[in-house]
Amino acid sequence: MPDDVLTALTIRPYDVGDRDVVAHVCVCTAAGGQDARGVYSDDLLMPDVYALPYVEHSPDLAFVVAGPDGRVVGYVLGVADTRAFVTWWEQAWTPRFRAAHPAPGAPTAHRPRYTEADLLRDGTDPRRMLRGLTAAELDAYPAHLHIDLLPEAQRQGLGTRLLDTFREALAARGVPGVHLGYDPANTAARAFYDRYGFVELPSSRPDAPRLGITSR
């Protein structure tokens, strides 16, 4: 992406018309920060677990990065109350997910560590978001988020701006803090979160790392 376009990138609230491009950004960054298109039998599997439920439940806590031509190249998505989100997912999203993805599709040439069976399980098991977290951690960091930028929009300070925007929105709602999980293979993401100021939660494990930070 040319420098003059990068400087014109702006952060704006999510709009319902952004739904498909949010799904696109999600799958294009889902393999440890790399492109996961074609890895699974359906490119909507990743977005249906890690992006689209969030814009469905909390569109007011979704923000996108867009260029002057309107093209979306990144986002931050999240919820203010993880416990409430889990309840909503069980009641509203799980039935829709199960109907859309009833069984694994035809195998692809890829053999990802995070398998299609894992995705199907996680799409119908929102309580995974609570497992391992203590009640005290959920009280201190009740929100959680996902943030993704296409490669051409990385290393431009946009991740910091997205997190600032999200935390300010949480603070305006009186939410004390936010946590996140990340793929431990994505070492660049961990380095970014450390620089930003996230701290590792006591319940964090090497195979399921979780970090937290207070709202602004």
The spatial strand order of the largest sheet comes to: 1-2-3-4-5-7-6
Which CATH architecture is right? Answer: 3-Layer(aba) Sandwich
Query: Distance N terminus to C terminus?
Result: 31 Å
Topology pattern, helix = H, strand = E:
HEHHHEEHHHEHEHEE
CATH class categorisation: Alpha Beta
Shape: globular
Structural class category: alpha+beta
Fraction in beta strands: 15-25%
CATH-defined topology: Aminopeptidase
Query: For this structure, what is the CATH homologous superfamily?
Result: Gcn5-related N-acetyltransferase (GNAT)
Instruction: Give the % helix.
Output: 25-40%
Q: Unreliable runs, pLDDT <50, ≥5 residues?
A: 1-6
Number of spatially distinct domains: 1
Describe this structure in words.
This protein has one domain (3-214): Aminopeptidase (3-Layer(aba) Sandwich). It is of the alpha+beta class and 216 residues long. It has helices at 3-6, 19-28, 45-50, 52-57, 82-100, 116-123, 135-140, 158-172, 187-196, and strands at residues 10-13, 63-66, 72-79, 143-149, 177-181, 199-200, 210-214. It has nine helices and seven strands; from the N terminus they run H-E-H-H-H-E-E-H-H-H-E-H-E-H-E-E. It has a seven-stranded mixed sheet with strand order 1-2-3-4-5-7-6, sandwiched between helices.
